[in-house]
Write a structure and sequence with these properties.
The chain is of the alpha/beta class and 387 residues long. It has 14 helices and five strands. 64% of the residues lie in helices and 8% in strands.
C-alpha cells in the first residue's frame, strides 16, 4: 500500500465523516453513560417500597420498626390492592404485607408467623435481586429481635440459668418466615432482555435509514420538490416500520418468547416503537442535515441509559430521569415488559409513542416549510448557429 493511496482515502469526505462518527461514538457514550450511572448505588434508596398493615394497631410497632430500618422511599397509606396496582405500574418495587393475625401467631410460642413480600419480576433484573435481598434482611432482623425479646421474657419469668437459656433461644429462633410471592414470574432471562434489544435495534436501524434517506433526498432535489421528497421519506419509513416490526415480532415469538396479550398486539406495539424512533431520528436529519447523524448517536446513548431496561430509572442521575420522558425508549421498555412478562397494561405507553411520533413529524414539517428549497437551474439547450 502506498502513502499516496492513503492520502487519497483521507481526502474523501466519506472517510472523514466515518472517522468523526467513530470518535463521536466514544465521546457520547463515555460522557453520557459515566454521568448517567454516576453514584447509582448511592441512589438505590430512591426506589419505593410499600408497607401494608392488615393486622391493625397490634402490628403498628412492627410496622414502625420495619419503616425505621428501611432506607427507601416508603408508602404506608395504601391498601393492599392499591399497592399491587402501583407495583404493576412499576411505581413501587416491593410490597411488605403484615397479614391479619400476624401478631397473634407471633405471640403463640407454638406457631410461626409469616410476613408476606410481593415482588414484581416484570422489572430490570437488578430490582428483583435487590428486593429479595431486602426481604431476607428484614426477616432476619425481625427474627433476631423476636428471639431476644422471647429470651428476656422467659428468663424474667422462669429465672433459667444461661445453659438452659441458650436452649430456649435456639427453640424460639426463626419465629418469622418470609413468604415471598413473585408476580409476573419469569424463568427465562431472555425475556427480561427483549425490551433492551427492541430499543437498541429500533433506534440504530432508524439512524441508518434516516441518514440514507437524507442523502437520497439531497440527490433527488433537482427532480422533485421538497414536499414530494418529504412525503416519500415518510411513506418509506412507515412501510419499513411495518415490515421490520413484523419480522422482529415473528422471530421473537418463534424463538420461544411468549406474549401476554397475543401476537397481533405485540406486533402493533413494536410497529409504534419503530415508527416513533424513525420520526425522531429523521427529525435530527431534517434539522441539521448530515450532521444530524451525529446528534442521533447521542440520542441513542441517552435512550439506552434512561430507558429503564437495565437498571430502574429512579436511581439514575436526575437529568437523565427527566430527559428520558421525551424519548420513545422509556415507553418502549415499559410496554414490552408488560407484553413479554406481564404488568398493568400498555395504554399509557401507546399514547406516549403516538404523541412522540406526531410531534416529531409536525416539527419536521414545520422545518421543511420554513426552509427554502434550492433553486433549480434550468439549462436551455441551444442549437449550433449555422455558418
Amino acid at each position: 500500500m502506498s502513502i499516496s493511496l492513503l492520502k487519497k482515502f483521507l481526502k474523501q469526505p466519506v472517510t472523514i465523516v466515518g472517522i468523526i462518527t467513530a470518535l463521536l461514538f466514544q465521546v457520547f457514550f463515555s460522557l453520557i453513560w459515566v454521568t448517567g450511572y454516576d453514584h447509582v448505588t448511592d441512589r438505590v434508596n430512591q426506589m419505593s417500597i410499600a408497607i401494608v398493615n392488615e393486622d391493625g394497631t397490634a402490628a403498628q410497632p412492627i410496622m414502625d420498626g420495619i419503616s425505621s430500618s428501611l432506607k427507601f422511599r416508603l408508602e404506608t397509606d395504601l391498601t393492599l390492592q392499591e399497592a399491587k396496582d402501583a407495583m404493576n405500574r412499576r411505581g413501587i418495587r416491593m410490597i411488605i404485607n403484615i397479614p391479619q393475625g400476624f401478631t397473634k401467631q407471633l405471640s403463640n410460642p407454638g406457631e410461626q408467623a409469616e410476613l408476606d413480600y410481593l415482588i414484581n419480576q416484570s422489572n430490570p433484573q437488578m430490582v428483583s435481586n435487590a428486593m429479595q435481598t431486602v426481604a431476607a434482611q428484614i426477616t432476619a432482623a425481625l427474627n433476631k429481635q423476636t428471639t431476644m425479646q422471647g429470651l428476656q421474657q422467659a428468663l424474667a419469668a422462669m429465672q433459667l440459668p444461661a445453659a438452659q437459656a441458650d436452649i430456649l433461644k435456639s427453640g424460639i429462633s426463626s419465629r418469622i418466615n418470609a413468604n415471598v410471592k413473585i408476580t409476573n414470574p419469569t424463568t427465562n432471562f431472555a425475556q427480561t432482555m427483549v425490551p433492551l434489544m427492541i430499543v437498541t435495534a429500533s433506534f440504530t436501524g432508524s439512524m441508518l435509514l434516516a441518514m440514507n434517506l437524507n442523502r437520497a433526498s439531497v440527490n433527488l432535489s433537482a427532480q422533485a420538490g421538497k414536499w414530494q421528497r418529504f412525503a416519500a421519506r415518510f411513506i418509506i419509513m412507515g412501510t419499513v416500520a411495518f415490515l421490520a416490526s413484523l419480522i422482529s415480532t415473528t422471530l421473537i415469538n418463534s424463538l420461544g418468547i411468549p406474549f401476554t396479550t397475543g401476537y397481533f398486539a405485540t406486533w402493533m406495539f413494536e410497529f409504534l416503537i419503530i415508527l416513533a424512533c424513525m420520526t425522531l431520528a429523521q427529525l435530527s436529519l431534517v434539522l441539521f442535515g448530515d450532521a444530524g447523524a451525529w446528534m442521533n448517536i447521542g440520542l441513542l446513548s441517552i435512550q439506552m441509559l434512561s430507558s429503564g431496561a437495565t437498571i430502574p430509572r429512579e436511581i439514575l442521575s436526575p437529568f437523565y430521569v427527566w430527559i428520558g420522558q421525551f424519548f420513545p425508549a422509556r415507553y418502549a421498555v415499559d410496554g414490552m415488559l408488560d407484553l413479554v412478562i406481564g404488568g398493568q397494561g400498555i395504554g399509557h405507553d401507546v399514547l406516549a409513542l403516538i404523541y412522540i411520533a406526531i410531534a416529531c413529524t409536525l416539527l419536521s414539517a414545520v422545518v421543511t416549510a420554513v426552509r427554502r428549497a434550492p433553486k433549480k437551474i434550468i439549462v436551455e439547450a441551444t442549437s449550433p448557429s449555422s455558418p
